[in-house]
Amino acid sequence: MGGISIVSTISGGIGGVMTQLLKTLIRLIFLSVLWLLVRFTQFVLELSELSWEACEVSNAELHLQVKIHRQLKALTPKFIKA
Fold first, then answer.
1. Separation CA 76–CA 73 (nearest Å)
2. How far apart (Å, rounded) are the C-alpha atoms in residues 64 and 71?
3. Residue-by-residue DSSP string for 53-79
4. pTM for the full predicted model
5. For the segment 4-29, what is each residue's pLDDT rounded down to a tens digit?
6. How far apart, in whole angstroms, are the C-alpha atoms of residue 30 and residue 36?
7. In whole angstroms, what is the distance from residue 50 CA to residue 57 CA?
8. With 0-12 CB in 10 A as exposed, 13-18 as middle and 19+ as buried, what is 79?
9. Helices H, strands E: what count in the chain?
10. d(CA 42, CA 48)
11. Euclidean distance between CA atoms 13 and 19, whole angstroms
12. Cα-only R_g, the chain
């Protein structure tokens, strides 16, 4: 009878190790997916920031073009009179 309890304890220990290994593997997969989600979010935020910077530059260029156009429009009659 003593031998049977040792075998069941060993098989129970192996099952416990497998359960612990499975839990660790699930945690590792979960943390990996979470890490990927964080990295993807950082990438999207950086891309959004670059897009806003490009938009600001484009708006600044447009503002300068409008300002130059207004100045030329204002100077044209003076230039024609001269």
1. 5
2. 10
3. HHHHHHHHHHHHHHHHHHHHHHHHHHH
4. 0.55
5. 555 445 555 677 888 999 999 999 99
6. 10
7. 11
8. exposed
9. 1, 0
10. 10
11. 10
12. 35
